[in-house]
Every structure is written in C-alpha cells, then in structure tokens.
Amino acid sequence: MSDIIAIDGLSKTYESGFTALRDVNLHIRKGEIFALLGPNGAGKTTLISIVCGIVNPGPGTVLVDGCDIRRDYRAARSRIGLVPQELSTDAFETVWATVNFSRGLFGKPADPAYVEKVLRDLSLWDKRKDKIMALSGGMKRRVMIAKALAHEPAILFLDEPTAGVDVELRRDMWNLVRGLRERGVTIILTTHYIEEAEEMADRVGVISGGEIILVEHTRTLMEKLGRKELRLQLAAPLEAIPAGLSDLNLVLEGDGHELVYGFDARHDQADVAGLLRRLGEQGIEFRDLRTRESSLEDIFVDLVHNRRTGD
Ligand SMILES: Nc1ncnc2c1ncn2[C@@H]1O[C@H](COP(=O)(O)OP(=O)(O)OP(=O)(O)O)[C@@H](O)[C@H]1O
C-alpha cells in the first residue's frame, strides 16, 4: 500500500509558546483505517488540524496524496473530509442545502444522486428538508459527516466521532466507516474508546506529550505487548502466596479468593499445566478458571504511563 499522508519532522509551537507537537513522523497508507490514540492534550487535534489546513504548521513537511499542505493547500484540502469534534454548521439552512453547499465549496459539480446516497447511508434522507437547528444532537452529527463526505474525499478524518453519541449512531457510524473503506477511502480517527480502535483500526498510533511513541498494526501490537491472565477461583481463600510458588508470577485478589497468573502473550506456551500440577501438590483447590487477554486499553495505559514515569 502506498502512503496517502506523509508527515515528516513536523513540530508545532503555539503562539503561547506551548509546544504541542515534537518532530512527528507518521505515514498513513492508502485505504487503511488508522486510529490515533492519546490522552487528553496529547496533540491529536493539533495534528489533524494541521493536516487539514486549519492550524498553521511549524517546521516539517506534510504531503496529502502527494500535495504539500503549504504550497498546494487547495489540492491537499480537496482530498480531505473532516468531521470535527464540535458541531459547526449553518443552523438556518436545510440539511439538503448544507450538504450540497459543502460540495460546491470544493468546486465539485452538483451530483444530487451522490448526495442522496450519502444522506440515505446516514439515515438523513427523511430529514433533508429540515433546518439544521430543528435536528437532534445525534442528527446534527450525522449532518457533519454528510458535509465531510459531500465532495467525495479520498481521506476522512473523524475527530472523536463517537464521543457522547448513542449506541445506534455509533453502530451506523462504524457501518459507514467500513463501507467507506471498502470503497477505498482512507480513514483516520481519534478516539477515547480504545475498544473501538481495537475492533476497527488496521493500525494504531499512540501520541503522548506531542510525540508519536508507537505506530503498529493493531493485531501485532496486541500480540507483542499483550499479556494473558489465568484467573483461578479458589475453593478456600489463601492468606498469602505459598512460599513453594513464589517463583511464579502470581497475585492474590478478591480477599484471597482469586489467584491470578500473569504471563506474556509472546510466550503463550506458558506452563499452565505445570502451574495446575504445582497447585495440586500444594493442596490448593480451585472451583473455576478463566483466561483473559489484555485489551488495547491495558496496553495503551501501560505505554503512556511508562512514558511519563520514564520506565
Ligand atoms: N490555540 C492554542 N494555543 C495554545 N495552546 C493550544 C492551542 N490549541 C491547543 N493547545 C494546547 O496543545 C495541547 C494539545 O492539544 P490538542 O487539542 O491537540 O490535544 P488532543 O490530543 O486533541 O486532546 P483532547 O483529547 O483533549 O482533544 C494542549 O495542551 C492544548 O492546551
């Protein structure tokens, strides 16, 4: 896959003197779903806003489908649809007029059939004659997406697309994102719902303190950094881990009722059978056992935390 966005050596210091991005290098591949994860204030919106031409870039280069965002601003911008975090649209216009106007802004000829399809995909067709101000918050968000798609962009940025939206809209949103990807649209999203990134994204990038600290295939990341856990519900509570088992990575939880064995997903041949045998030798019985793999959320929290504490 070729790169549709190439960010190299990008930094950004706001007029206040605050440096929001430091030497960011990030290449997004054509047709992928890329999730940008980071704690509040990490620089996600700043990065997206620079690529979309809303915030002035600092040093470094950004190419969008080969177009330099400074030298070739209009061409670069025309490749992009942006669904911002905040709703911003002309409240007095109808849905139909708003979406068609957005298309016109990019110099695209009118295409009512295309706009109809976008509105239908977003369950907005019945609302096309309604004024935006008369719509519910969820419907307004759908309009923001329709606006972003109006000029048939090759790249769609979704900044916190599902923050505060209901389950139905979330589901529609992800169906839409999958449909767009099938048509070759590249999707970059920021999200606080890490399980969504885990489910949706081909690759994830983690940003913290204005620096990209990791970019990885979602699955590889889970395999590389994920941990597995075996949880045993004990028949009788233990006060402490028996000395004979102290060489194992065991933790007691639930007032001594639960024994947790943690091991690296990389070595998933970890000796579970050996552990169970040794428990038997110690006379420790259990009623139930469960395994759990760490989620992307666990991995993310570890990464950002380690970065902050310098581990
Ligand atoms: N116009 C500005 N002037 C000065 N500082 C700014 C400006 N815009 C953003 N910042 C600062 O830059 C940092 C990064 O902000 P940004 O909005 O990019 O983070 P974010 O990762 O999108 O966070 P969130 O998840 O909270 O939306 C923050 O500390 C913010 O206060």
From TrEMBL:
Gene3D superfamilies tied to this protein: P-loop containing nucleotide triphosphate hydrolases
Which top-level group of life is the source organism from?
Bacteria
Protein keywords:
ATP-binding, Nucleotide-binding, Transport
SUPFAM superfamilies on file: P-loop containing nucleoside triphosphate hydrolases (SSF52540)
- SMART domains, alphabetized: AAA
Q: Which GO terms describe its molecular function?
A: ATP binding; ATP hydrolysis activity
Question: Residue ranges of the ABC transporter domain?
Answer: 5-234
The protein in question is named ABC transporter ATP-binding protein
Print the organism lineage. Bacteria, Pseudomonadati, Pseudomonadota, Gammaproteobacteria, Oceanospirillales
